[in-house]
Amino acid sequence: MTSTWNEISVAIKENRHELKLQGPTISGYLEANGVDSRLYQLTNLNYLDFSNTCLTELSDDIGSLVNLTNLVLDHNKLTRLPETISNLKKLKCFDVSNNQLESIPESISGLTAIHTLNCSMNKIEIFPSIEKMTSVHILIISNNSLTSLPEGIYSEELSHLSQIQASDNQIEEIQSEISDLPHLNLLDLSNNKLSSVPAELSACPKLKELNLKGNKFKDRRFGKLVEQCPTKSVLDYLANVLKKEQEASGKKKKSQKDKKKKGKKANKDVEEVVKDMINILHFQEDEGYTVQVTPAVLSVRQYVLCCIVRQLYLKKSNMIYKHFITLQTKLHDEICQKRQAATIATHDLKSIKKPIVYDAKFPHALMITPLFKQKEVSGEKLVTDLNREAEEQRKEKKRNTVSGIHKYLDLLKDKVQYPCLVDGEGHVISFPPITNSDKTKITKDTTDLFIEVTSHLNLDTCKKVMDELLYRMLDMGLGTPKPEEEGAEGGAVDTETQNEASKRVQKTLIVEQVQILDTEGNMKAVYPSRADLPNEAIKIIRNK
Fold first, then answer.
1. What residues are paired with 459 via a beta bridge?
2. What pLDDT does residue 228 have?
3. Phi-psi region of 95 (alpha: psi -120 to 50; beta: other; left: phi over 0)
4. Closest Cα partner for 392 from 383, 402, 382?
5. Does the residue 220 lie in any domain?
6. CA angle 414, 415, 420 (to 5 degrees)
7. By the 8 A CB rule, do 303 and 462 touch?
8. Alpha helix segments (H runs only) across 83-171
9. What is the CATH number of the domain that holds 111?
10. Which of 32, 145, 188, 451 sits at 20 to 30 Å (Cα–Cα) from 379?
11. Do 165 and 305 sit in the same domain of this protein?
12. Could you tell me which residue ranges the B3/B4 tRNA-binding domain spans (predicted)?
C-alpha cells in the first residue's frame, strides 16, 4: 500500500520551501507504510526537518533534493546514510545527531558548501576526511567512539573552521598542526583519552574557549590547571612550554631569550599565572545591600542572587568596556542557554537606591524604561512587541517555530504576573529575562557594579552563572589597576609583551556580599558565600 502523508500533500499544493516532519504522528506513518515517496519530489525544498521519529533508513532518493540548504535528521534511529547525500551541493547545515550511526559515508566530503555539521550522539568510530569542506565553520562530533579527529582537520584550507566540539570520545592525540587553523575559537576535547597536548595549541590566534577536562594528563600540574583554571591560564601555561621548547631547539632570537631571565622555572610560571585574586568583602549589617524577595515572585521566577563589584576600571583600554558588554551577551548564549536557564543584569550601583525588592507585578502595572530607550513602557507592551517581532521573523525565515534567540519569551507565557527588581524609589531596574532599565545602565565611568542573576530553575544555576561571570571579569582585568599598569592605557602592545605583563601583574577583583532576604528579614541566601567561587587557581580572600 502506498503511503500518502497529508503534510507532504500540503507542501506540494502550496509549493513550500520548508517542511517539518516530527514526532509520534510521523512515526505512526512510518510504522504503517514507510516514507511517502513524494517527499523526494519536492525539489524546491531548501529546509527539511525530519526528526524525533522512528526513521531507521534514508532513501538514496534524498540526493534528488538538490536545493536543500538545511537538513535536520536528529533524534531518529538511523543506522546509515546513503552515498547520494553528496548530491546536496548547496547544503549548509546538516544535523544528524542523536541517531545510531556507526559510520559516515566517504562521499560526505563532497559537501563543500557545508557551514555547520552536527554528527554528535552516535556510535561513529571513523570519520571521513573533511579537508574539502572548505566552508565549514562548526564541526560537532561529540559523544561518539572516535579515536582521532577527522582526517584533514588540520588543513590550512579550513580557514573558516571556528568550532570543534569533540568531547566524550576516545581521542588519544592532537597534532601540533592545530595551530594552522587561523579562526579556531572553541575547542572542546573533554572526556577523551588525551595524555598530553601539543604546546602549539597556544599559538592558535583566535582560541578563546578550550575544554580539556576529563582527560588523564601525564603532566599532573597541567591536568590540575585544566580542571580548575579558565582557558587563558591553560594557554599561558602551554605558551610557556612552547617558548622553552623553541629556545631549547635554538629557534628563538637572542632578544627573546633575554626575556627568559626574568622568569624562573616552568612550575614557577604556573604559580604566577594562578595568583590572580578575588577579594570578598563581608556583608556589613549597617551599610550592606540586601534584596528582599516577595511571595508574589516565588511562583514566577523565584531564584535570585546578587553581588557588588567594587573599584571597577572600565577605562583601562579603549576596548575593555565593549569587551565586557560582549562578555555578558556571550554568557547569555552559552551558560545561560540563550536566557532560558538564567539571565544576567548589571547596574551602576550609584543609580540604585535602597532598599531593593525582588517582586512580581501585573503586566500592565510593570513600568520600565528599557535599555537604550527613552520612554517608559509597560511589561505587557514590551512582551507583546517582542512576540510580534519573533513571529514576523519566523514568517520571514519561513520557519515553523520561532528562532532560538526568542525562545526565552516562552518563560513568560501564561504568567499572570511578571518578575522585576525594584529599587527604593519604586523604579523597576530590571525585568528578567527581558531587559534592564536604561536608568541604571553601566558606562565607562562606572566604578561600582551591582550584578543580579535570576533563574526559574534553581539557585545552583544562579551560582554557576555568577561564578563564571566573576571568573571572566577577573581574567579580563576589570579590577582597578595598580599605578604601574595605568601608564600603558591606550598604548599599542604586542602579544608577547602582554603575555609577559600578565605574568608580572596580579589581577584583582573586589566583590562585596549581598544578602537575599524574605519579607520577614530572614536570610535566604548570600553571595558569595564560603562555598562559592571554588577555584584553587585563584586566591580568594574572605574578609570579615
1. none
2. 87
3. beta
4. 402
5. no
6. 150
7. yes
8. none
9. 3.80.10.10
10. 451
11. no
12. 305-478
